[in-house]
Model the fold of this input.
Amino acid sequence: MTIQAIFYLMGHASEQDLLHFVCEQATIAFRQNKRVFIYTEDQDCAHQLDELLWSLDAQSFVPHNLPGEAGHQGSPVEISWLPPTSSRQVLINLATEVPDFALQFSQIIDFVSEQEELKQLARQRYRRYQQKGFHVETRPASRVA
Amino acid sequence: MKTTKSVSQAFSSTGSLAKAITGFNPRQAQLDMSLEVEQVIADKATLLVEAGTGTGKTFAYLVPAFLSEQKTIVSTGTKTLQEQLFHKDLPLVKKALSSQLKIALLKGRSNYLCTYRLEENFSSQPQKRRQAGVQLDAATLADLVKVRQWSSHTKSGDLGELTDVADDSAIFAQVTSTTDNCLGRQCPDYESCYLVKARERAIEADVLVVNHHLFFADLALKDTGFGELIPTAQTIIFDEAHQIPDIATEYFGQSFSTRQLLDLASDCLQQYRVELTDVKQLGKAAEKLQRSAADFRLLFGQNPERGDWRQRLRMTTFSQGFSHVVDDLKFLYEVLKLCISRTEGIDNCFERATQLLNLCDLMQQLDKPGTSLWYETTRRHITLHLTPLSVADKFSEVISKSDSAWIFTSATLAVDSQFEHFSKQLGLNNARNMLLDSPFDYQQQSLLLVPRYLPEAHANNRAQALVDIAMPLIEASKGRCFMLFTSYRMLNQVAEILAEMIENPLLVQGQMAKRVLLDHFIEQPDSVLLATASFWEGVDVRGDSLTCVIIDKLPFASPDDPLLQARSQDVKRQGKDPFAKIQLPQAVIALKQGVGRLIRDIDDQGVMAICDPRLVNRHYGQVFLNSLPDMQRTRELHRAVTFLEAITAKKKREIE
Done:
């Protein structure tokens, strides 16, 4: 089956807005009973997301873990700057490059910013996904301010 | 005199409470609860109220209880809370409402001086003293002097008045009675008995304060002269009601311990040495029972443990060991039978031997459905328990037969805003319920920390990891910290490492009695108290003394607990998930209790660190978060440190 890659157009959203949007996407996938892997550029970014998810309203709770925190299987949502250790459906990619393990997923969520440097990197990723034969589409991130 | 006063009037800003109590602030939640209690009293209904810390639930139930002018029993969790109710809250409400109702306080038997035993054991005239008089060490002897002085002028006989004798002094067991050794109406001191007098006052009172243990002893007729209180009450109010299911279970069950056997044997020996010197067999039989009871204890490991007694009973060593005990008890029983009516003491011993033999039969029932048969050892003794898996049927029957209003309140009854867990346990299916939020601003006042990257529960470096988290927190809060553990092993490991690493005084559970430990904790503001998770039930540390609580693991009951195992199997048989039905709600209530200890006042602030990532990464984390007060949350240790530093700085400013 073809891997679906969705690029969300983030416009001029700030980094904080982006992270909030990532949390929303992770929540949606979690509610659909999909196992999610959020791949970050570095540990610092993973910690920010961890803090954000943990601070959500109790009603919107999303069980999640950092690498090594929830045994080998991990929890429904894993946030990591390291390759995944268990199989998952959804990859949310926050890294500047397409990771080699992207092929393991059935769905990829990625982001395009209007900021020139980031936009260039996103374009490169877009092409990488296409080269790998993924089905790539773009969507407006309508809920972002 | 019929009163025209109303609950609303009492709580209004110009009402009786505001007039009588300086600084009284009417609160809507409090009034809502009070009106509901009033209605429930009128309807003789059953009510469950979770009232978050700071709601003012005590006044909310006392006011309608006083205004109803009916007989009310208020039962609470501990002696300390009883005293607080009786000496502080009740008089205040009574005065505010200009009520003429009679109020009384009744504690358990072991709180009242037994003048007969004081005289028997330590008579001022040595020739009257039993020859095998009790040997006391120097400290206990000093306590005896204090007891004796006080006994000459006390009116109530309530040992709580003796504030200069430590709670755990060995003297108390010698000068109080037990249901076993009380001579009841045969006692020469019956007319002047403090316990009897206290019970008489209790029966005459309009508003009576008891504790849960006493209440259930009365209900389950576990004490002589009991069963008289509850039928007379029109309103029964349980404060700290979350404790009721466990206590009810304990009292509706049966237990049998080697301590009872040894007490019986030593009383028989004393009878033999003093009164029945001719009955040589009595001495022999008692000594034989002492030996077999001690041997029976030795069949188990030296360290205290709990386990399934039925399993043990299927093993020859244990069934034989127990048979020896039973045989020797039977022999003693036969000897006692021959001595009946020679002395009051002998008759009492005979009755006890009869009861203990009956209990022995119960403890050998291999397959009585709906019960758990389990054992528990201490260093010296073993106790066998026959516990019903559910008290719902029995308890709901008590309620439906009672024609009274029943009110259950606590800061921690609900799990995920539902009362099901609590009401199911007691069979309170048709109870009304009410959930009142705390007036505290938990987002501002508290921070919940779940630190990152903790090693697994059984990892070798876990104790060190806990210390690494604790140290910056302790430093930032300048002590004022509880560390609570789910196992003694981890408690001791952490205590050992921490002692090397920090200057703050360390108070470790087991070093001294609980009360003393807590007193030290309050006296030494920079101290850190290390204890097991169950420690904080009933602990009340107000204000500045406690700003940080660190918990090593979510407080799930140990899966090895025999009663839990039996209940889990029962739930499984019904096709339900024992974790969701039993363990999870229990742990939720325990954690809620803990948060309640940390934030007790509108000005309190604090950090709760739970060193268990399962709270973040398991689905059930949501149940905890939905049930706990809405604290700010973080996973960053440094944020918790900053939060504590701000509290410490604020306190410093206030002092300067």
Notes: The mean pLDDT of chain A is 93. Chain A has one domain: 4-140.
